[in-house]
Write a structure and sequence with these properties.
The complex is a heterodimer of chains A (543) and B (456).
Chain A: E1 3-6, E2 9-12, H1 19-26, E3 49-52, E4 59-60, E5 71-73, H2 77-91, H3 108-117, E6 134-135, E7 140-142, H4 152-160, E8 166-169, E9 176-179, H5 191-196, E10 202-204, E11 217-222, E12 231-236, H6 241-244, E13 249-254, H7 267-270, E14 285-288, E15 291-294, H8 297-314, E16 319-323, H9 329-342, E17 348-350, H10 374-380, H11 389-397, E18 403-407, H12 411-414, H13 417-425, E19 429-434, E20 446-449, E21 458-461, E22 466-470, H14 483-494, H15 503-513, H16 522-525, E23 530-531
Parallel strand pairs in A: 1-5, 16-17, 16-18, 18-19, 19-20
Antiparallel strand pairs in A: 1-2, 3-4, 3-5, 6-7, 7-10, 8-9, 11-12, 12-13, 14-15, 14-20, 21-22, 22-23
Chain B: H1 2-10, E1 21-26, E2 38-44, E3 47-54, H2 62-68, H3 75-79, H4 86-101, H5 107-135, H6 139-160, E4 169-170, E5 173-174, H7 182-204, H8 208-214, H9 222-227, H10 232-236, H11 244-247, H12 268-292, H13 310-318, H14 341-347, H15 359-364, H16 366-376, E6 387-394, E7 399-406, E8 414-418, H17 421-431, H18 437-447, H19 451-454
Helix pairs in contact in B: 4-5, 5-6, 5-12, 5-18, 6-7, 7-12
Classes of the chains: A alpha+beta (543), B mainly alpha (456).
Chain lengths: 543, 456
Amino acid sequence: MPTLKIDGQEVTVEKGRTVIQACEQLGIDVPRYCYHPGLRIVGSCRMCLVEIEKMPKLQVACNTQVTDNMVVFTQSDKVKEARRSVLEFLLLNHPLDCPVCDRAGECELQNYYLKFAQHDSRMRENKIKKRKAFPIGPHVMLDQERCVLCSRCIRFCDEVSKTGELGIFNKGTWSEVNIYPGKELNNNYSGNVVDICPVGALLDRDFRYQMSVWYLKEQLSVCPGCSNGCNIRIHYNLDRTYKTEGKRIQRLKPRFNDHVNKWWMCDVGRYDYRWLNENRLTEPLIKDAEGLKPAEWEPVLTSVADALKRTLALDGSAAAVIASPQMTNEELYLLRRIFFEYLSISTLNFVTIPVDPAASEDGFLLKKDRNPNTKGAQLILSETKNQLVESILQLAGDGRLKFLYILHTDVASFFEEEAVRDALSKVETVIYHGTNLNNTIPSATHILPAATYAEKEGTFTNYQGRVQRIFPAVAPLGHSRTTLEILRDLGRKLGTDVKSAQASEVFLELSSKIKSFSGMTYGTIGLSGRLVNEVPEGAVAAD
Amino acid sequence: MSDTETKTEQTDLIVEEPSGSMMLNMGPSHPAMHGIVRIILQLEGEVVKAADMEIGYLHRAFEKHAESVTYTQVMPWTDRLNYVSPLINNFGYAMCVEKIFGIKVTERCEYVRVIMGEISRIVDHLTCIGASAMELNAFTVFLYMMKAREWLYELIEDVTGARVTISYARIGGVRADLTPNFKERCLHQLKRIRETLKECDALLTKNRIFMDRMQGIGIISKEDAISYAFTGPMLRACGIPYDVRRAYPYHVYDQLDFEIPVGENGDCYDRYLVRMEEMQQSMRIIEQALEKIPGGPVNVDFEGNLIIEPPVVVDEAKMGKIAEIADRPVDVSPNLEGQEGDSYYKVNPDLKQVIIPPKQKSYTSIEGLMNHFKLIMYGHGIRPPKGEAYVCVEGGNGELGFYIVSDGTDRGYRIRVRPPCYNFVAAFPKMILGLSIADIIPAFGSVNMIGGELDH
């Protein structure tokens, strides 16, 4: 373990680490463009130059291994001058694009200019023109003039997505990043090149010209797109409604988690956020002779509770619940408590969304199971007498069900639509509890609008058994409520003693009851998640 | 009070015994309660036996608001503290942030601030005396003084672009340089103001009625004034020559020759005299400053080049053709007067972490453009180092102080303002004790309470 001195502070780092990593350990900000911890080191941008004693020239911090008794200076005059010069070179041909550039506000050129350079322009020649703003794939735009040739995107395509679509062409000042002829940047991880681009050269076509980034607010979350549970940041805006026209969630960005997704996320998850803004159920509906009518929460919930009580009084087996692995652990637990433990409804099951087996898994992040909480549902609902959803629908079709409570599952789309509709039409009370309009809705008699994962607190258990927290970014849309609140109110009407709809309190109860979760609290889960106690066979446990 | 209550129990009508005391509300909505303030008076006949002040009617949570926005965005709100002399508030706030940064503004900027600040002080005193005189029925004086104030407002408007809500100061400088013919115009207006003041002096100073209404009214002793932390003309009227410009000289006040007028009795009449003389001294300061004001450094030499039209500049720069425009004088836009490099650098230092670059730079170079963006973008902004600073300036009413604690982010952790008239209002009940109701009016006029800064 070599010990070295950086700016007068001593630090001991692991053998084989580089100077830039040692600086990070001390919290010293060394500017960098080409260095990215997830990619191979090239040392091409020269921005991270530092002065090392007994070395005649400045060294790149990203590609210099630490040795014992090394003495490093990151703030000496020589270093400052070098950084200024590097940035001056990088800006020579940089276009005057800040006002029209989507990166303004999170651009490392802007940040480093004010922090490290602050020089005046000495350029007295016309700027070199390159190709501007052309699409290189379904999700990415390239602007060659803005590029600083750090080659992060090229290394990403070579090493992480292993598709190799990008390269640097031409020489000297005419060098430019471009796509190989006849190729298209359309792999499932193309969005990541936008994240790692330190300047405005690669931009997200989906987010382009939607909103200046400094208006965005951030909340941490977990992607619900598949059972991998990539850590994400939700970027949203609520105060510029005249621009956004109801689009509250603006974009999703990956968040570093060493155990799950490192720095990356897939395009399937990244661009699957529109349903948070569009086609939402915003008020409770109840069916009368003329169809579905808006109603207040109170009468709708009372009606649901009355229908269930009526059904159970006649025949205990005439009621069924279809849960979903889209729900959080807390919601599944509350469901189990009310319907299984208190009302003893045995026909309680969840359905996993079947996906096209051809285009499902890619061996990296995206998993075949497109539900965030299948493992959690298995653990929490393991003791219920599982009946297949098909058999529940069979019961309905046979006219043996009078009450069916469907949560977050568009059964009509997963199975044969006509058959499902026929089956549901034979059930007296069909409650659909969910977030968006779908094919099951016309068959339902009661609609309970619920909050999406961006609007509630809770935990998902990913395929490894890692329990990870989500946080509410925005308030539930319209009159919709979080599932926990709906279940609490419904449970009270049915006579249970559900005390709280607070996710943290429900989770405490859950961890005391369900063995796999015992000992966990929101505090111990933290931001990077925690594995459940017994990892069932077949799951891959990361360290 | 108790005997009044027993009376009312006996009869429905509130009948006051001639010798009994009476409670009277003066304000909050009353023509003589400058701004909005409420004086609760306990009277015996017409004599004030006790009084209490109720403030807060113009409370806009300046301090808390200021802590919720960036350092630059606070500037317009300082306009609205003492809205009669907003320039001084501006400069005081800017100086405080500059102190945390450790910034020294250019010498020319210091002179500009002194000149504009003194103009503001004259405006403040003109308003105070004029309004007081009007309340004593000397309407002519009021109109004369408002006319004179108008001349000064025109000067202010020329330089800052607005009359009252000027937001002229910038952290590290001012918005723009003085206008080219400012000196001539200013000297001309000062000459006219001297004449006006002479007329007003003739109308008021030896006027028997005015003297009777003002002399011996609203007296506060030296000791009380100090214990109430009085500053400004109110303190100097008691005979204590404390003036921030002399005690803690800022900008270039130590290089300028001026006197600090003091009174003797601490009554309304002395305050009037002090203010009248201060205006004369302010004019002296302005004249000296206009003589001494230096040219200041100009970074780029523009000689022998044609000025380029604004639309052309923007188009050429967008296309990357900076070779033609890099060193040439650029006409930015008629709406951004004073933002051209040569005049901008006269009054603003070249400090990129604080001062936005002149418009021609942000239009013609990526460095300037990024600099501009970094200082303007929400959540980026200027970021003083961690620390705290107190800065006081001599406002129209006295020591105007700003205290800022910075935690290194783009907005203040704590911003506190010390408004001078807060202390006067606290002592006001003492000043009117034993006076008649009619005397409250000149006494309150001489306090020159400004609701905007009082209710900070």
